[in-house]
Write a structure and sequence with these properties.
- By secondary structure, this protein is an alpha+beta fold.
- The protein folds into two domains: 31-117, Carboxypeptidase-like, regulatory domain (Immunoglobulin-like, Sandwich), CATH 2.60.40; 124-202, no CATH class.
- The chain contains six helices and eleven strands.
- It has a four-stranded antiparallel beta sheet, with no helix packed on it. The chain has a four-stranded mixed beta sheet with strand order 8-9-10-11.
């Protein structure tokens, strides 16, 4: 009888150890994912969202689709081998002005992209920054306003011409936005500023 109980205890211990082994957290990740932009949306095998950095992925063949507004979507495949870290780098190419503007606002990401792809900003983009360095600080967002930049309406045929876009969400917005521009060392009167009042929409 005692022998049977002992066997049952041993068997239970073995089962528990087996469960613990299967459910234990893995000590090292399987995938090191490098994304540019780092905030890009990465979808693994069409269902699981993963982010820039290290992650645990089951061994086998996988397909990764990466997308981000203003950049060309890219799909790549790779294999994960058990207990072996796999590094996958995906650098998205710029596909629109929105992407170029995003890189201007994120110079570290732009430098990283340039290092990975060997591509630099277009001369037009560089000239925009040289002409109005303020745009490197945009978008700038506060409670009653946000400041962006975009194509000039006064000079639509000049790719290097930049307009400042101010969106306001209440009466103090305009003055606060202009005060912020002055605090950056710029005179609003010398800039092309396009206003967009959203106070009515925000109160609905």
């Amino acid at each position: 009888m005692k022998q049977q109980k002992l066997l049952l205890v041993v068997a239970a211990v073995i089962v528990l150890l087996g469960i613990f082994y299967l459910l234990r957290p893995r000590s090292t990740p399987d995938l090191n994912l490098v994304l540019v932009p780092s905030a890009a949306h990465a979808k693994l095998d069409g269902k699981n969202w993963i982010s820039d950095g290290k992650a645990y992925v089951t061994p086998g063949h996988h397909t990764l689709t990466v997308s981000f507004n203003g950049f060309a979507t890219q799909t790549t495949s790779f294999d994960i081998v058990k207990d072996k870290l796999k590094t996958v780098t995906v650098a998205l190419g710029v596909s629109s002005d929105e992407g170029r503007d995003w890189l201007i606002a994120h110079p570290d990401e732009a430098k990283k992209l340039e290092q990975l792809t060997g591509s630099a900003f277009s001369n037009s983009t560089q000239q925009r920054v040289t002409k109005l360095p303020l745009i490197k600080e945009l978008p700038y967002i506060e409670r009653y306003f946000r400041i962006d930049y975009g194509n000039s309406k006064l000079h639509p045929d000049d790719d290097n011409a930049v307009a400042i876009y101010i969106t306001t969400y209440g009466q103090p917005g305009v003055q606060q936005a202009l005060d912020w521009i002055r605090s950056q060392g710029y005179n609003p009167n010398t800039l092309e500023i396009i206003y967009n009042d959203q106070s009515d929409q925000s109160s609905q």
